[in-house]
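User: I'm putting together a teaching handout on how multi-component assemblies are represented. Below are the sequence lines for each component of a complex, exactly as they appear in our records. Could you produce the 3D structure of the whole assembly as structure tokens, so the students can see both representations side by side? Please keep the chain order the same as the input.
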Amino acid sequence: MKRRRLLFTVFWWGAALLFLAFLVFPVLWMISTSLKPSGEIFQIPPTWVPEHPTLQAYSTLWQKGNFLRYLLNSILVALATTGIAVLVASMAGYAFARLPFIGRKTVLFGILTAQMIPGVLFLLPIFVLMKQLGLLNTYLGLILANVTFALPFAIWMMYGFYKHIPAEIEEAAWVDGAGFGGTFFRVVLPMGMPGLLSCAIFCFLSAWDEFVFALALNTRDELRTMPVGLFSFVGQFGIEWNYLLAGAVLVTIPAMVFFALFQKYILQGFAAGAVKG
Amino acid sequence: MRPKRSTRFWRNRNSGSAYLFLTPALLILGLVILYPLLNTLWLSFQHKVLIRPDQDSFVGMENYIKALGDQEVRQATLHTIVFTVCSVGVKVVLGMLGALLLNVKMRGAAWVRSFYMLPWLVPSVVAALVWRWIFNDQFGIANGMLATFGGPAVNWLGQDTTAMFAVILVDIWRGLPLMTLLLLAGLQMIPRETIDATLIDGANAWQRYWRVILPLMKPTLIMVGTLSLIGTFNSFNIIYVMTGGGPAHATEILVTHVFRVAFQSFNFGYGSTLAVLILVLITILTSLYNRLLSGRGEAKL
Amino acid sequence: MKLFTSWKVACVAIIMTSVVTGCSSNSSSGNASSSNTVTAWVMGEGAWKEYYSKLADQFNKEHTDVQVKVDFIPWEQGHDKLIAAAASGAGPDVTTDGGRWTTELAAMGALEPLDAYIDSAYKQDFVESAWETTQWKNKTWGIPQGFTTTGLFYRTDWLQDAGYDRAPKDWDEFRDAAKKMTKDNHFGFGLVGDNSMETTMFWAPFLWQNGGEILTKDLKKATFNSAAGVEALQFYVDIYRKDRSAPESALSTKRNDSHKMFTNGIAGMTTTGPWFFAEIRESKPDLKYAVAPYPVGKQAATLATTDHIVMMKTAKNKEASWKWIDYVTDKQHSQEWNKFIGFIPYRKSGLEDASFTTDPNFKVLINEAKNGHAYPTLPEWPQIDNLIANAVQEALAGKKQPKEALDDAAKKVDEILAQSK
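Assistant: Of course. Below is the structure of the complete assembly, with chains in the same order as your input.
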């Protein structure tokens, strides 16, 4: 039995390292390139570890662009999207899970189909809509678009999550006279914290990733998010990839921090919410 | 799962609150999705080319008829199906293996899990940029590695099949963490003893896995697979940034094609028609997938 | 419970900030729309931003009745943004644009004709080939704002090693030189063949040199698939497929990639315009290079491009908008801009300026103006442009023979042109 255990451990690590090799190596290559001086990136064969590591790419990037601003914009948009989407989704998810109302199935199904709609195809109508609402060139417009695209999945997650929380505690709170809102805010939300947090990670990362609308709905440099800012540099730097990949490293770090903060909740939340449905 | 009396309990409370709680979500979705959807549907029956406002007119089904006979659309559809099926297929298989792996209690597993999630944290546009550099024919590490093994340099993004391979690979790379995470979440609902037994019990491990775990995972696979199918079908950023649909349309999928029709030819009428057709196609694909897995043709919500 | 409280606070805080910032940036755009403020877009960042933000400050200081607020849009995104803005009426009051977009915008009904603001004396100071690009349906839709020609940039040291003491003069010499420069991961020519309009920009001069034209004079039919066109594409393809004197990655090489290959010692030749001087000076001041006219096929030819500044139909205060247009393009500021960025003067009064005639490299590009060809001016140009780029790509990829690729593209172009009547 012991030998078998050892064999299994070896097998496990072998498989795990294979996966990681595929998943992590581009990130290592990204970091490595960003630390190379311009001359070294055009070396053949390419070097894995920079021979003359330098932060030159980072400092150039910092000087040339509004990078700090882009970073703050991304963080602001992603956090605000997360805050709004999580709140709205948990309210809706709770209603779906607890309250039998007419047309519940239909509405739930409608929200799921909304998930299927590729945002790119609605670029122009949404652009026109935002114009009519006066939300072009505002954070709010971008946040609204991001919330919309994160919502269907988020609602679904929260719905699944609340469905599997026993209802007795809330019932007790009701009986104690807490009322609907009171029950939700004081009892349900805290109980659903793991679900909320994994939902938050999902919303944050989807806003962090968003590109097409951030590109289309803004014309101001000072409102650009990181992906758009970085994309705009492609034309400027061409094949001088050390600059672009320095930007890539910078944009990945905040997401890593956010993820690391809430990581321990995510699996719990997903298990209860998304998958069981 | 809830006891029945509970439902009655809730029904006795005012169901007006339910609508109140739903309002914000429905308001936002209605505004930013329903309106554009109806707008697109309406436009799909119009002849509307932005640079020719004088020609605007209602044309009924004309755009739809044109789309069905459009060679470029047919080609893009084929590419979309190849792209989606390959990417989702590999993601599901690898994701399942990865989930089984991460589900094992092992010292250091927490670290492996953290690093495993890394690609999900890189925005897809940025990921596409990074991979474009990896696939650079002269200075990229992909050819660098091939060279170490004495392989020939490959013109990755300049040939039809390798370009398609490259964009599929990147889509898998980006999507695998979330896929694994969702499958892992599903796995965690299966009693641990069941899984441990299948894995460690030597000779029959694979058979047992097949017979015991997969059926238990079916609902999860349906859910997660459907989601991934939809997401991959609409994968725009990676192709847009890596190849722009090239070389010579070899990686042009439906969403990038529609983008081109709408924003380079400014044919909004026709572009809307294609958008509607894409929605129809996604619905067909997802219901096919569900039928395939559930065997009875009904997706469980 | 405690965790929840802090979470709730955080939520509220986030929503508050977002609403506040949303509103505040909203209100700033509200201010901008008051009638004596002109909102202007300028295409381009870097040097464009540096110069035009200063110019706007200066304008605002000199004027009390009119103020201007400028936003900068990267060139690659400019076209899509302008069209989206024009289609929804959400655009600026004034914008600069790539001259090839102007007729398209005019056809959409998004532009204000400028004839009311100018007289014949005003027109006369403009270089004709630049001025002509602003005309469509007998109206003036923009004012030239930047004028450039392109030429062949080559590494003098590499060329010497290849056995030439001067730039290649004709196509045969060009191919030969490129072939000889290609060795040890160096390439003769940074050929552009990516999936975009930049490929057309790179190939079109070769078409013209061979006596080809893109469309018939009346703009009713495609002619780029003529024998001259097929030969020009064959030439372009041979450099890549037969001689292999361009990097394999040509099918994903953009113009800027080609330029960076040149400055980083990967490609020995590239074609581009005068704005490239400043870039070389900044990034590789020691680069041994010179500029020559394009190698001559049957005739000398180069691509001349004119950027415009245009007024949108939705401009709230048209008089004020014109003041900004006039300020940008008047004799003094146009000349300042040309010197700053290294463009060619588009006003005749600027051509004699000594600072343009002393630099030999610059003189080459000014002289090339007489061989300048411009793209046809019609609203469908961007679509045609795309079809040509696609045909070039198909031929470079070896999917189709040059003739087949161009014929197929020509058929589609003819369909587009027939529909537009």
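A couple of points students might notice: The two ends of chain A are 39 Å apart (CA to CA). Residues 1-63 of chain A form one domain.
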